Amino acid sequence: MRPEVIKEVTYVPYSGNMAAAEAMRQINPDVVAAYPITPQTELMQFFADFVANGLVDTEYIPVESEHSAMSACVGAAAAGARAMTATAGPGLAYMWEVLGIASGMRLPVVMTVVNRALSAPINIHGDQSDMMGARDQGWIMLFSENAEEQYDNLIQAIKIAEDERTRLPVMVGMDGFVVSHAIDRVRLLPDRAVEEFVGENKPMYSLLDVDNPVTHGAVAMTDSYMEFKRQQREAMLHAYKVIREVGEAFADVFGKKYEHIETYKTDDADYILIIIGSTAGTAKAVIDKVREKGVKVGLIKIRTFRPFPYYDVMDAIAASNCKAIGVFDRAETFGGAAGPLFGEVATAMFLRNKHYPMIDFIYGLGGRDTNVNHIEEAIDKVMKLAAGEEIPLVNYLNLRE
Amino acid sequence: MIKGWKDLPIGAVILEPGSSEKYHTGEWRAWRPVFEESKCVNCMICWVFCPDSCILVKEEKMVGIDYDHCKGCGICAHECPTGALEMKPEYLFREED
């Protein structure tokens, strides 16, 4: 029996990496395979400590690349183990091929992605181009605003991934350095309570179940490949429900509610900002500040990016007095009209047959600072847009002209 | 008949052991090895070399070819020391199948 470290709800000063490692300790996965990459390295160091000190029962596989890390997780999950890993930026890009194998084989692997920019030029700092680049590989994608959300999201991710209706891998992103290395106030839950919440892993088809032999990873030609892809779409539709249910169950047990989106002061808002990740926290502070001057701004923070909560976003917008929207993208889509999040919100409008004036802000690429002044600047542009002024579709925050 | 997407097991797992026998890879064949018994000395070299285990053997004698699974690679005919196996174009046979 592994030792019980945290017996009651505890508040600690933790970085995102420490919080994610702590969640993994409490989840106690059967297999963790990982390769160190900045800014994820620290996370796996903390977890390797737990393994060395006997605080988890995990089989820890130090592999020679991220491609192997994900491959080992795929093998372990196919064998019926609860497999986890973590990576960042180029590491996620290197996993690309195996990401599709994990989702195609419907293996509930759970992974932290410490969001980092992609080369070239080489850059170790935070932006979300890594996960946006991997978004069509069939993984459920959650994003965290801060260390505590990363911790809470990882615990929920296990339940979401392993639900019989989904059986899909989940990646949970947190902004590199800003969340992963900054010390934050984090609420840790008791070990046993987490253990009980995530429950036992019940693999559907285990390679180790010798009485019921199965073949994993078989070939499917033109005659059936498309049918399996259609199944994956269905699983994502189910995931939408499962994520919500797990969020509600989490609220019941631990008292903090997680939904697909988080709305902040949108009810009476004239202007709405839509943001993913840590910058949503900065934006909340700015919103409080400008509201003192009578400017009614609200925020929609996207927690679930895949499956994208189109209707939740539109419900929140429709319930406000929205005159214009500013979308914040921490990734580029070269050759696209605007960033990836902008595209999703535009699709959401199409699905409701609605149109709101909307502009995009590209910000924070490669760790570029986005402070309160930049967000104020953005709000100013959204207000001008609402007033009928012509504003470019794509605007950069804190860019040297 | 292959099942629709709602009825296939998820993740493309195969739940039945030994099911590859049901997959008739012989459909892919463009050239077919034709066996002439009178030339065969039962040396079993074809049996050793066949990558798909398609040489049928009964009581230590080569008796024919499993055309359901033979992909027509021609290795048997190439290796046969007596010319008992000859590759012939598939269209000569398909209608008779």
TrEMBL record, chain A:
It comes from Phorcysia thermohydrogeniphila. Keywords: Oxidoreductase, Pyruvate. This is Pyruvate ferredoxin oxidoreductase alpha subunit. Residues 22-246 form the Pyruvate flavodoxin/ferredoxin oxidoreductase pyrimidine binding domain. SUPFAM superfamilies: Thiamin diphosphate-binding fold (THDP-binding), TK C-terminal domain-like. Residues 269-375 form the Pyruvate:ferredoxin oxidoreductase core domain. It comes from the Bacteria. The keyword Oxidoreductase applies. CDD domains: TPP_PYR_PFOR_IOR-alpha_like. One of its GO terms (molecular function) is oxidoreductase activity, acting on the aldehyde or oxo group of donors. GO terms for biological process: carboxylic acid metabolic process; response to oxidative stress.
Automatic annotation (TrEMBL), chain B:
It holds the Pfam family Fer4_21. Keywords: 4Fe-4S, Electron transport, Iron, Iron-sulfur, Metal-binding, Pyruvate, Repeat, Transport. It comes from the Bacteria. One of its GO terms (molecular function) is metal ion binding. PROSITE patterns: 4FE4S_FER_1, 4FE4S_FER_2. InterPro entries: 4Fe4S_Fe-S-bd, 4Fe4S_Fe_S_CS, PorD_KorD, Pyruvate_synthase_PorD. Residues 31-60, 61-90 form the 4Fe-4S ferredoxin-type domain. The keyword Metal-binding applies. Its cofactor is [4Fe-4S] cluster. Heterotetramer of one alpha, one beta, one delta and one gamma chain. This is Pyruvate synthase subunit PorD. The lineage of its organism: Bacteria, Pseudomonadati, Aquificota, Aquificia, Desulfurobacteriales.
